[in-house]
Amino acid sequence: KKLFEMAEILVQSQSGPAAMSATGGAGGVAASAGQFMTTSLYVGDLDFSVTDSQLADLFSQVGQVVSVRVCRDLSTRRSLGYGYVNYANPQDAARALEVLNFTPLSNKSIRVMYSHRDPSIRKSGAANIFIK
Questions:
Q1: Any idea what the Cα angle at residue 45 is, between residues 43 and 50, rounded to 5°?
Q2: Does a structural domain hold residue 4?
Q3: Hey, how many other C-beta atoms are within 10 angstroms of the C-beta on 67?
Q4: What number is the average pLDDT over the span 112-124?
Q5: Does 107 reside within a domain?
Q6: Cα dihedral angle (15, 21, 23, 28), rounded to 10 degrees?
Q7: What is the DSSP string of 84-109?
Q8: Is residue 121 within a helix (H) or strand (E), and if so which, with residue range?
Q9: Would residue 128 count as lying in a domain?
Q10: How far is residue 76's CA from residue 25's CA, in Å, rounded to a whole number?
């Protein structure tokens, strides 16, 4: 099957990749002048019973959702425990990250973070570390 396409908007300052940095906030990432903004969110620690529609219902309370997908095993169709939510604009995605991170869904706290589909961003060395 074809991989799920994500809508992503990158905004970079003219000072280049060195200016991109994640600043820690209470449960999220704050946008600064040199930081990219994206409309794609990764949602982890999902209960295996969570459906696309449950995820869409929760995230649409924060802003205009373009698409939602709970990732599943190709042969068994069992949830892999994570998914992706795409918003129409970066402000809604940032608000969802702040508001919905660690929200209980089906009696399990979900983990929300930005999804970076661009390989150059993933390979930059900047990352979030979560210790559970």
A1: 80
A2: no
A3: 15
A4: 75
A5: yes
A6: 110
A7: EEEESSHHHHHHHHHHHTT-EETTEE
A8: helix 119-122
A9: no
A10: 38
The total of other beta-carbon atoms located within 10 Å of residue 112's CB is 23
Q: How far is CA 102 from the centre of its chain?
A: 13
pLDDT digits (tens, 9 = 90+) for 47-105: 999 999 999 999 999 999 999 999 999 999 999 999 999 999 999 999 999 999 999 99
Three-state DSSP class for 18? helix
Domain around 52: 40-116
> What tokens were used for 112?
């929300």
Return the number of other C-beta atoms located less than 10 Å from residue 118's C-beta: 13
Residue 49, domain member (yes or no): yes
- C-alpha angle 105-111-112 in degrees, rounded to nearest 5: 110
- The number of distinct structural domains making up the chain is 1
Confidence (pTM): 0.65
Backbone angles phi, psi at 115, to 5 degrees: -100, 125
Beta bridge partners of 104: 109
- 20's tokens: 């991109």
- Do the Cβ atoms of 108 and 47 come closer than 8 Å? yes
CATH number, domain of 103, equals: 3.30.70.330
